[in-house]
Design a protein that fits this description.
Blueprint: E1 7-8, E2 11-12, E3 26-27, E4 30-31, H1 34-47, H2 51-58, H3 62-75, E5 82-86, H4 92-100, E6 105-110, H5 113-122, E7 130-134, E8 149-155, H6 163-176, E9 177-188, H7 195-213, H8 219-235, H9 246-255, E10 260-267, E11 270-276
Parallel strand pairs: 5-6, 5-8, 6-7, 8-9
Antiparallel strand pairs: 1-2, 3-4, 9-11, 10-11
Helix pairs in contact: 1-8, 3-4
Length: 279
């Protein structure tokens, strides 16, 4: 439960949810170390001020996928009034949701303080309808919620955590949803493409990346630095890339209790899933 003491201008006090507040959650290789969590957040702390500018390079499908998420939310009845956005980044999708639903309240969480600072600046027009919380997915992020939510949205963050932790997150998300609530889940998935199709996909990604670099101020230097910081964090044990197969995602969502889960959008490795909690 949040209170006046827990919020600072609409910003949920990060001391309430610590980065290592749940040390008992395990990965396949043992307990998650604090150093590893810092390595993961370190990359995103660096990326935060450049994140929106780099999205056309990092994720060309972002805007199309966001549009589909908003279309689905807009079709839900009754209109969702309380929404959880996990892995909110700089708050672009959060802002779009708040604009679409003028009476809604969104709780948005992210593991990077730098990302949340960017989000707070981007969401300054919505401080009365937004709660920002600093939390890793393995933390007690439920503490930021004032009761159950009507919908949960997520976009391209959960593929960084091990599969056993991902399945636990699905179960926890199921619990915070109201009966009849919806989960809109967009993430990187492992696609078993035939060799020729895989080469085509890689060529398309390379073309998309190169086509926007020249449009960025100091684009080539920025991309080089992005790769350096990412590689350095990967060597430190952070930034896991563990995408699951779409079939696995669907099976795990149903296993968590959702009455169905289906893929409603796909663009190479990006998939958007829709699941519902039974009434």
């Amino acid at each position: 439960m949040t209170s006046k003491q827990d919020t600072i201008n609409g910003f949920f006090c990060p001391s309430r949810i610590l980065i290592d507040s749940n040390p008992d959650l395990n990965t396949k290789k043992g307990k998650i170390s604090k150093a590893k969590l810092i390595a993961e957040s370190g990359f995103y702390d660096w990326l935060a001020p450049h994140y929106d500018r780099l999205q056309p390079v990092m994720d060309p499908s972002r805007y199309q996928a966001h549009s589909i998420i908003l279309d689905v939310l807009n079709a839900i009845e009754p209109v969702p009034g309380r929404i959880l956005d996990i892995g909110c980044g700089t708050g672009l999708l959060t802002c779009q949701i708040l604009e679409l639903f003028p009476d809604a309240h969104v709780t948005a969480i992210d593991g990077s303080i730098a990302m949340l600072e960017e989000a707070r600046a981007n969401l300054e027009d919505f401080t009365d309808r937004i709660t920002l919380a600093k939390a890793d997915f393995r933390d007690s992020w439920e503490d930021a919620l004032d009761g159950d939510v009507d919908a949960v949205v997520h976009y391209t963050s959960l593929h960084h955590i091990p599969h056993d932790a991902l399945r636990e997150v699905y179960t926890r998300l199921f619990k915070v949803l109201k009966p009849g609530g919806w989960f809109l889940h967009g993430d990187i998935t492992e696609e078993r493409l035939p060799g020729p199709v895989q080469r085509i996909a890689e060529n398309i990604r390379d073309f998309q990346r190169s086509s926007v670099v020249d449009d960025l101020a100091d684009g080539k230097k920025l991309i080089q630095r992005l790769d350096q910081v990412k590689n350095a964090n990967e060597k430190k044990g952070g930034l896991l890339e563990l995408p699951a197969l779409p079939e696995q995602q669907i099976a795990w969502l149903v296993e968590a209790g959702f009455e169905f889960a289906t893929r409603v959008f796909q663009d190479w490795r990006l998939s958007l899933f829709l699941a519902r909690k039974p009434e």
